[in-house]
Amino acid sequence: MEGLMAPRAPGCGRGLAEFTHSYTYFTSHGCNVTVASPAGGAGAPDPQGFVFYANDPLTQALVAKRPDGSPYVPATEATVAVASVSDQDLEEYDIVFFVGGTGAMWDFINNTDIGRIVRRMWEGDKVVSAVCHGPMALVQATLSDGSRFLDGKVLTGFSNAEEEVLGPVNVCVFCFPGNEAAGCPVGFSPANCTGPHMPTEYYAQGSFLLEDGIKGAGAVYVSTEQNWKTFYYRPHVVRHGRLVTGQNPGAGWETAEAAFDAHRLLGRRGCPVSSQFADVFCSPIQQTATDPPVKCKTTGYIPSC
Predict the structure, then answer these.
(1) Which ranges carry the DJ-1/PfpI domain (predicted)?
(2) Quick one: pLDDT at residue 161?
(3) What is the pLDDT of residue 156?
(4) CA distance 212 to 214
C-alpha cells in the first residue's frame, strides 16, 4: 500500500509527534510512505516539539543529532514538493495524510496543488486524512463540479478551545531554547515571553481559526473535552466514510490507524468505495457540549458492510 504525507513562518512547522507517530504507524504496517511538503526539500518541524517530546520513544526513534548537537528528523530531510506529485502519481497512492502543526496555517492556505491532491484522491475513491491543524488542507478544497469538498462532511481538528489554551501555555512559538536572537529573553519561561501569541496574533490571517474555517466550509465540526489540568492531549478521531481526521497532536497514531482501517475496509470488505459510509464514528471521549450530539457513534471506527 502507498501513502502520501504532506505538512512557514519563523519558529513553526509541522507537528513533530503528529508526524513521527503517524509515520511510524504506517511504516510498521507495511506501507510505502512518500513524505511531501509544499516546497520540497528539508521540512522543518515546530522546534518546540523537540522539547515537548524529548522523552517520547516513538518520536525519539526518528530523531537524530547533527554535528552541532541540534536535533532533526532524517525522514523529512528530502521531502517531495507537492507540485511535483502528478495526477498519474496519485493513482498509485491509497491514503493521503496531512500532518498538522502551526505551519499548516500558512502552507496549506491557497495552495492549489494541495487542493488538487485532495480532489484527485477523493474522486479516485481513496482515503483522505488529516490531524490537528492538518485539516486546513481541506478547508479550501473543491471537487471537480466546483462544490466545496467539506460540504456536509463530519470531521474534527484543533478546536477554538484548544487554541485559547495553547496561546498562553505555549506563549509564543518564537520563544524556544536557543532562539534568544528572535527577541526571546535568555532563560525564558512560558511566563515571560512577550512575542506574538496564538491565536489572534499568530496566524497569517489574523483571527482565522481552523474550527471556524471548517464550519465555514459547510462541514459539521465535532470535538471533545480536554483535561487541561495535566496539559495532555486526549486523542480524538472521527471517521466519516473515507474522510478521517484527528483533533490534536495526541491523535497522530490513532488517526493513522483509523485511516489505515478505512483503507482496509474498502479493499477487504467489499464496501462501495464511491459512497460515504452511512455512519460516523468517533473516539469514545465525551464530546464538547455545544457539538451536535447525534452525529457521532462511539462503537468503533469500522462498521459492518
Answers:
(1) 18-148
(2) 81
(3) 92
(4) 5
Give residue for cell 451536535.
292
In a domain, residue 177? The reply is: no
Q: Which residues of the chain have pLDDT under 70?
A: 1-13, 47, 165-208, 226-232, 267-305
Position 165 scores a pLDDT of: 66
**How many domains does the chain contain in total?**
1
Are the C-beta atoms of residues 250 and 49 closer than 8 Å to each other? no
Domain of residue 121 covers 2-165+205-282
Report the alpha-carbon distance of residue 121 to residue 127 in Å, rounded.
7
The number of C-alpha atoms within 13 Å of 218 and in the hemisphere containing its C-beta is 11
pTM for the whole thing?
0.80
Q: Backbone phi, then psi, for 225, in 5-degree steps?
A: -70, 140
What pLDDT shows up at residue 10? 46
pLDDT reported for residue 197? 42
Q: Does 13 fall in a domain?
A: yes
Question: What is the reported pLDDT for 274?
Answer: 38
The answer to whether residue 179 is domain-embedded is no
Distance (Å, rounded) from C-alpha 285 to C-alpha 287?
Answer: 6
CA distance to 36, 58, 189, per residue, from 118 (Å): 14, 28, 40
Q: Is residue 200 part of a domain?
A: no
pLDDT of residue 23: 96
